[in-house]
Amino acid sequence: MPHQRANGVELYWELHGPEGGELLVLNNGVFMTTASWAFQLPDLARRYRVLTYDMRGQGRSEHPEGEYSLDLHADDLVSLMDGLGWRRAHMVGTSYGGELNLVMGERFPQRCQTLVVIASVSHSEPPLAAAIDRWHAAASEGDAARFLRAIAPDVYSPAFLAEHPEWLAQVLERAAAFDVRAAARLIESFRRFDRRAALPAIRVPTCIVSAERDALKPSCYGTSLHAAIAGSEFHLVPNAGHAVVLERPGEVNSIVLGFLSRHPMEKP
Asked: CA–CA distance from 64 to each of 8, 29, 56, 57, 79 (Å)?
């Protein structure tokens, strides 16, 4: 299994798609892993050279002690790209990964061909802050299965859970391998996140995607991002909750591929 030492931490990564394809990075949601992009990879990897990886504290990457932050994740990603010889790439991220894309677009625009920001926010209004406080309290109890069950209603729409009763059971089956202490550090990172002041400085072509039934990060956050980032696109996916990349992958993939096709990389 490939690992790369990046910014002082061991990161797990995978490459998919044609070697000559345009470079594309998939940035995970807060509790996702490389495996969570199963519904995107078949479509994206037909044309693009896709890097999936687990951030520090996620999946098969190292879970170091200490404070995490979106800025630290950005430094990790740049170091990982350097190690792989990648100068510039399309950045596609959902939730926490979309928020990482905002940091990348602000701090490292030269490394970003485009930004696709899915079900993400620039900050937390009181309802979201309260939900994240609940998540942190649940994670602090140290019971991974109980934690995953507690956050499910925030992440998935009621219709999706009703239509796929097996989904939560599959999530809970992975509880034994879930590092709830690292999850608490990732939650703390998000609690500190506020990029509102930096949004007007983003000049990278940006596509913002929100989900109609996202109770955790409602579409008003997406429209605010759209208003603040000059030239950005905004798309609303109907009948989907926060986990829109899982609930409505066809619609998400179509939006992403259409946007990327309008902003191709220049051939060297």
From this structure: 10, 18, 7, 7, 17
What pairs with residue 91 in β-bridges? 25, 115
Tell me whether residue 233 is in a domain.
yes
Give the distance, in angstroms, between the CA of residue 143 and the centroid of all CA atoms in the same chain.
Answer: 24
Helices 180-191/126-140 angle, 10° precision: 160
pLDDT score, position 1: 61
In 3-state terms, what secondary structure has residue 232? coil
What are 121's two structure tokens? 């926010």
- Rounded distance between C-alpha atoms, residue 71 and residue 8, angstroms: 14
The angle, 0 to 180 degrees and rounded to 10, between the axes of the packed helices 144-155 and 126-140 is 160
Residue 46 included in any domain: yes
Residue 45 lies in a domain: yes
CA distance readout (Å), 125 to 170, 187, 196, 217: 31, 15, 12, 9
- Residue 268 is predicted with a pLDDT of 59
CA dihedral (259, 262, 263, 268) in degrees, to 10, reads 130
Domains held by the chain: number? 1
Q: Which domain holds residue 92?
A: 3-123+193-261
Answer for the pair 91, 260: CB distance below 8 angstroms, yes or no. Answer: no
pLDDT in the model for residue 176: 87
Strands 206-211 and 233-237, by their bridges, are parallel
What's the pLDDT score for residue 168?
A: 87
d(CA 244, CA 261): 21
Is residue 33 within 8 A of residue 39, CB to CB? The reply is: no
C-alpha distances in Å from residue 71, one per residue of 102, 168, 182:
10, 32, 17
Whether this prediction's pTM lies above 0.90 is answered by: yes
pLDDT under 70: residue ranges of the chain:
1, 268
